[in-house]
Every structure is written in C-alpha cells, then in structure tokens.
Design a protein that fits this description.
Helices cover about 45% and strands about 15% of the residues. By secondary structure, the chain is an alpha/beta fold. The chain has 2 domains: about 170 residues, Periplasmic binding protein-like II (D-Maltodextrin-Binding Protein, domain 2, 3-Layer(aba) Sandwich); about 180 residues, Periplasmic binding protein-like II (D-Maltodextrin-Binding Protein, domain 2, 3-Layer(aba) Sandwich), CATH 3.40.190.10. The strands form 4 sheets. A 5-stranded mixed β-sheet has the order 2-1-3-13-6. Strands 8-11-7-12 form a 4-stranded mixed β-sheet. A hairpin with a 2-residue loop joins strand 4 and strand 5. Helix 7 packs across helix 8, helix 7 crosses helix 15 and helix 8 packs across helix 16. This is Carbohydrate ABC transporter substrate-binding protein, CUT1 family. InterPro entries: Bact_solute-bd_prot1, SBP. Belongs to the bacterial solute-binding protein 1 family.
Amino acid sequence: MLKTITLKGIAWDHPRGYEPLKATSAAFAKIHPEVNIEWDIRSLKEFGDMPIENLIEVYDLITIDHPYMGQANANNLLLPLDKLIPRHSLEKLKAESVGPSYQSYYYNGNLYALAVDAAALIAAYREDLILKLGLNIPKTRAELLDFYKIIPSSYMVAWPLCATDLWCTFLTLCAQDGGRDFIKDKIIENRLGIQVLDELKIHLEYLHHDSINWNPIQILSRMAEDNEIIYSPFLFGYTNYSRSGYAKNLVKFGNSPTNPNIEVSTILGGVGLAISAHCEHRDLAAAYVNYVAKAETQEGIYTKNGGQPGNLEAWQSDANNRLCNNFFANTMDTMNKAYVRPQHMGWNKFQEQGAELLHNGLVKDIPSDTIMKKLNQLYQSI
C-alpha cells in the first residue's frame, strides 16, 4: 500500500484562482497516486499584499505575484525552479509565454515561479449595449475622454479605483506616457506623476461614483447583472464573465486605450505558482508545478475549469477562444506590450503603502504635486 504524501497549497479566492488548481491536482494524483494536494484560499488583497514569510512554513505550493521575486530572492523564501525542472521543459515554457509573463518570475539568475495565469489591465464592455447605442470602443486615452461625452445619461463608465487597482492604473498611465523606465533610483518621475494624477482627477468627474471604492470583480459583476455600466477601460480581466452561462449577461473584453506615441499597453498581472523553501517533497512539488504550466494542461483542463491560462498555446487555441468569446485573441496585443513592475526588495511594502497614499490623495482631492512629493519620499524611505 502506497504511503500518501500531502502537499498543501494556497490559492486566491475566486473560481479562476482555485478551481483549476483543484482540477489539476486531481488529475496529477491519477499520474502520481501517492500524492494528495490540498488547497486553502486567501483574498485577492492578501494575494497582492500578504508577505510570503507568513506562508512558507505552512504551505508547499504558493500562488504569487511577480513583484515578490526580489524579496523571495533576498530572503531565500522560494525554491529556484531552474534547479528542479529540466532545462528543456523551461525553455519550452519560456517560448510559450504570454507576453512577459514567464520572464516576470525570473530574478537575479533564478526562476522562482511559473506563470500558470496571465493577465494585464484590459477593457471590458457590454457589446450588446455598445452596438445598440452605435458606439465605438475607445482605442486611445484621447478617444476615451470623448467617449464619456457621447454616452446617454442612463449609462455609465466605471474603473476599479480602490487603492490596489488605482495603483495599477496609475503605474499604467505613467508607463504609457513615460515609457518603461519612468522609475529610476527609487523615484517616480515627478512631473509625469503629477500629469497622470491630474488626468485621473478629470476621469473621476465622468465615472460611476462608486468607482473609487470598487475592485474589478465588483464592476464585472455589476456589468453582468444589470445594464447600467457599459464600459470599463482599465481592469484586470476575468475570462469567467466572457463565458456563456456564467452570469446573466455576457461581458466582452478587448485592449485598453493607450497612448499611440509610446509602445506600452498596461500593467502586467497574472499569477505564478511557486514552491516554498520549506517544502520537504520538492521533486513532487516541482513535477506538479511543471504539469500545471505545460501547454497541454493549460489548454485543456486548466482553462475548462475556469482558469485564465498563462501558456500561449492555450491563448491561441480556437476552442478556448470559442469558449471565452475571443477573450484571448482580443486582448493579446495588450499582453504582448505589458509593463512589468519593479521586483526589488521593498517594492511590495512601497506598493501597499503607496496605493493607500494615492487613494487618500484622490478621495480628499489633495494637490497632485503634494501627493507625488509624499509618494517619492515614501519610496526613498523604504
């Protein structure tokens, strides 16, 4: 009789976050009957903000955001996967990356996670209502400002601008206007930041008044359930809402508005699957991580069970695009040109506190130059 080995994992609290991992764990157990993988979940905010140190002694498998790589490297929190997974497998996965997803988990010569989920800020819209109103989806930020003015008064545009998502949008607009290197020596270019904050204050005048408190799931749920919000230009997309039968109304997704003068789309998101440095059964854990990330799994069981895959073959799959009403094909350009956040030690602490600082500044309508001064002082202090 086989002795059962239990691996514990921590996912995040949305069907996209945990259902595909539960499904792949069951499938992996058929190949490795000695292994049982158990999953706990944490909130989306905890996924972005909770220090890895709080997880590595309890969990073998950790879903992770790529800006944690510097912290993981400095404190030896995660196992380097390039030491555990065959090189030919990693080379194949690198070639099958959706945009910079694979490379975003690489830091200081080590690969600390595999991109099992790929995402960036994209646009969401109710195609049925857009067509009924005879509107065109904005392709640039200038067109977006015009778009607000031609929408009938019974319809609204919304952005998720709770602190966490405001931070992602702020960095997106900075990268769109200043290029990928707008952060240098732990300073966000001051004039650029002021310009972006001033623009965000203009957008707020036109948006649904609850935008300042909403996250993407809240907006997508509203779009799917009633007819008030017809468009959201910048949010992390969820293929679930573009699948027929998931909700009352279908939400479609496309590329976000951009600055046509600079070849940057929006901020990269997504989820990496990593292994705790405390994992005792590292070879089996690595085999599972590799199994989840490979094209066959991603294109099949992972996507079919509500996942948003990180493998290019899954994104290019005709079957997956039919399943998700062309979610993947319609947002691929955004993924290919996505901006990758810094990964250095301390970034996550700055990200969490900086997001609150920005949010407080917009809510209280603090002058943009004052917000930027405080933001860069905070960055320098961490």
